[in-house]
Amino acid sequence: MSGEGTHSGEAAVLVDRSFGVRGQSYDLSEIRRTGAGHLLRVRIHRDSYPQQSYARVEVLTPAMTWTDLADEPAAAWHSGTPSRSTTATPLENIAERLFQRAAAILHTA
Length: 109
Hints:
By secondary structure, this protein is an alpha+beta fold. It has 1 helix and 5 strands. It has one helix at 89-108; strands at 13-22, 25-33, 39-47, 54-60, 66-71. The longest helix is centred in the C-terminal third of the chain and has 20 residues, at 89-108. The protein starts with 12 loop residues before the first strand and ends with a helix.
């Protein structure tokens, strides 16, 4: 995963990753540090109901709080993912898009 989720050649390093399955849903959480030193966290929750699903990317602020940077509406990805999964694979492309968007946003800030 190193080097992914970057903008203008910044290297990103995987810091933490977790995946879990709960009843009718599954979740991916991943944290990366950008080459500029920002900590980014992607959280994706895929529920059987699109309105209960979400995909967002956050940045850790100097005050040690997570602040939303961008999201991807479930309508854009829910139907393209399986209703059940035992791996994070169906959510990885969504996570990558969110990391790339966050890096682009921070690069222009």
